[in-house]
Design brief:
The complex is a heterodimer.
Chain A: E1 7-16, E2 19-29, E3 34-38, H1 45-53, E4 60-65, E5 68-69, E6 78-80, H2 92-96, H3 98-103, H4 108-120, H5 136-149, E7 154-158, H6 166-183, E8 186-190, H7 194-200, E9 203-208, E10 213-219, H8 234-252
Parallel strand pairs in A: 3-8, 3-9, 6-7, 7-8
Antiparallel strand pairs in A: 1-2, 1-4, 4-5, 9-10
Helix pairs in contact in A: 4-5, 5-6, 7-8
Chain B: H1 3-30, H2 41-49, H3 52-86, H4 88-103, H5 106-117, H6 122-145, H7 149-157, H8 162-173, H9 175-199, H10 206-215, H11 219-247
Helix pairs in contact in B: 2-11, 3-4, 3-6, 3-9, 3-11, 5-6, 5-9, 6-9, 7-8, 9-11, 10-11
The chains are: A alpha/beta, B mainly alpha.
Chain lengths: 253, 268
């Protein structure tokens, strides 16, 4: 699994009619890294995501996950949205193993793994609960466990904490970092929140619209584990300022 | 079992039933209604019990008609609903025909059916199914078309086949509207059966019994039969309600029961 989570985009582009949703893009992501994408609406980050997930076939270029060309094919990433998309008729355990149920048979080892994940990350007492009885934060945890459960080396998270209140959000960010560190997956994380991007990531990609493209690629060298202190350190503030300037500059143009 | 909840759920219906009977009684007594026009509630009930040996075979016949019709209607309704949800082009073509089918007055439908099927059980079952399938199809179609699109996208990203997605996501997602359709159908099933019994008269049926009682100016018999018919309709509705209750545990409890369903002991 050493190189399994590597992501390579080679000259990937996508156009909808006259609109260039994604200009030709080359991108290479090391396995096991945490990469965030920030940018205003219409900057092509969703297009980029959908191309990587295989929901969209790019007009040109190739998508490689690990050493496999997966251009236009689905079934090779974990995927999570702002909506938790838990199904109300299955328990927490049933929701975590939903991916297995959708693609093959749910085995005893699927259930054992789901139970292990859930127990390790604070959901152990809720395995038999229906999602209807869980808070927003808990639901997102279950959704992330489901995303992990298929053992895909690459996870695409599209604003997963966008709907949570600030306190829950910070808890969830800490929690996500712990899960990510333990699981050694590659994470591609879309967010509107620059603080969140800098706090979580090894690398932040700044995107810009018309045409949608990556305009900046910053390495975040803040020490890990990251804590509350990280958020107020001068390095953090400097990085945040750079990105905000970048986003603002793109907007004025 | 939560007795307080049971009490709360049973209390309402009992009160409303008592109110209906009370008002009925009051109208007869204080309105000085003649007994050949309308009986008191108890007299109507006695008209059932004292004639039970005659009424039971007729009632069981009507029950049979409604059960067969309900099952057939539910199956046809589900098949139509699924096909129309999956093949939109077909939906646009078939929908007008289905609506037309429901615009035909049932009585006008019964006579041609008698010509085709005779006076057997068949025309009654067909008419009940005819009434039942429509709300099932319409509700199931709406349910299937309203399953969260993002959930379907998620299934696609994970690499699920269309068949798996249908059974794992779409069917359970549409179960509530499906039961709405079934509950409506179950309530109307008796109406269909009685109209069919009148139109395709086979000599002995609840509908004809009632007509005969009216001919003899036996108001108690007429009202008693009506009560019996109503009871059949309510029974099927309650049966559907019970089935829905069993099929949707997540709507009433926050924790699933461990057992035959989720199976196995707790994996430690």
């Amino acid at each position: 699994m050493a190189s399994a989570g590597a992501l390579d985009l080679r000259g990937v582009s996508k156009q909808f009619g006259e609109t260039v949703a994604l200009a030709p893009t080359d991108l290479s992501i090391e396995p096991g890294t945490f990469v965030s994408i920030v940018g205003p609406s219409g900057c092509g980050k969703s297009t980029l995501f959908n191309v990587i997930a295989g929901l969209l076939t790019p007009d040109r270029g190739n998508v490689l996950v690990g050493d496999t060309d997966v251009t236009g094919a689905t079934g090779h990433v974990g995927y999570m949205l702002q909506k938790d998309l838990l199904v109300p008729w299955r328990t927490v355990l049933g929701n975590i193993t939903l991916g297995a149920r959708l693609t093959r048979r749910v085995t005893a080892s699927d259930k054992a793994q789901a139970t292990e994940f859930a127990t390790k990350y604070g959901l152990g007492d809720f395995l038999d609960h229906y999602p209807g009885s869980l808070s927003g934060g808990m639901r997102q945890r279950v959704a992330l466990m489901r995303t992990l459960a298929l053992n895909q080396p690459l996870l695409l998270l599209d604003e997963p904490f966008g709907a949570l209140d600030a306190q829950t959000r910070f808890d969830m960010q800490q929690w996500l970092l712990q899960v990510w560190r333990d699981s050694q997956r590659t994470v591609l994380f879309i967010t509107h929140d620059v603080d969140e991007a800098v706090f979580l990531s090894d690398r932040v990609l700044v995107m810009s619209p018309r045409p949608g493209r990556v305009v900046d690629d910053l390495t975040i060298n803040l020490p890990r584990p990251r804590t509350l202190e990280t958020l107020t350190s001068p390095e953090f503030t400097a990085l945040k300022a750079t990105i905000l300037r970048q986003l603002h500059a793109e907007r004025v143009q | 079992m939560n007795w307080r909840r049971v009490l709360r759920n049973v209390f309402g219906p009992i009160v409303s039933l008592a109110a209906v009977i009370g008002i009925w009684q009051a109208i007869i007594v204080w309105g000085h209604v003649a007994s050949y026009i309308a009986p008191r509630p108890l007299v109507a009930l006695q008209a059932i019990t004292s004639n039970w040996s005659i009424l039971w075979p007729l009632t069981s016949w009507t029950i049979k008609e409604t059960v067969y019709g309900l099952v057939a209607g539910a199956v046809i309704g589900v098949v139509f609903g699924v096909i129309m949800a999956k093949v939109p082009l077909l939906a646009r073509t078939v929908y007008p025909v289905l609506i037309m089918s429901q615009a035909i007055p049932i009585v006008a439908l019964a006579l041609p059916l008698v010509l085709i099927l005779g006076f057997s059980l068949m025309p009654k079952v067909v008419i009940v199914a005819w009434i039942v399938f429509f709300p099932v199809t319409v509700n199931l179609l709406d349910g299937l078309n309203n399953v969260d699109k993002d959930l379907l996208t998620l299934a696609r990203v994970l690499g699920a086949s269309r068949l798996k997605t249908f059974f794992v996501i779409e069917v359970p997602g549409a179960i509530t509207p499906l039961f709405s359709g079934l509950k409506i159908g179950a309530t109307y099933a008796v109406t269909g059966a009685i109209i069919a019994e009148l139109a395709a008269s086979s000599g002995s049926s609840l509908a004809e019994y009632q007509r005969a009682q009216a001919g003899q100016l036996n108001a108690a018999g007429v009202y008693g039969t009506t009560i019996l018919m109503t009871a059949i309709g309510i029974s099927w509705f309650l049966l559907m309600l019970g089935a829905e209750y069993m099929a949707t545990p997540w709507r009433r409890r926050s924790v699933a029961r461990r057992g035959w369903r989720s199976g196995k002991q707790k994996v430690q």
